[in-house]
Amino acid sequence: MLLQQHILLVMFVCGILLRNSSVEKLKEDAELFCCDFNYNFTKLATGADDFKIRIYDVETMSCLNQLTKGESFGKMEGHVSKIFAAKYHPDNEHVLLTCGWDNTIQNMG
Prior knowledge:
0% of the residues lie in helices and 43% in strands. It has strands at residues 9-11, 16-19, 24-27, 32-37, 43-48, 53-57, 63-67, 83-88, 96-100, 105-107.
């Protein structure tokens, strides 16, 4: 079921996210390039120039998880360059696709 919510999110490249008219501010230590909500608007994913995907709880705007590159060279685990796109699957919140300047599309779910 798709929840109808009115959420205003303003994202600045300097790393500031404002939710609902500056009610809540969040400062990341990176330049933000993209963001997307999951299908029921409970999680927000951001992509940045520090090669990290951050997952936030929309209600509290607290960081739930930070996805970074892995240590394995035999398997691609995370981006090794800036992330410029992030998109949740429209029906499955566990599928998050990201694109980076490393010329890869990755399933971070």
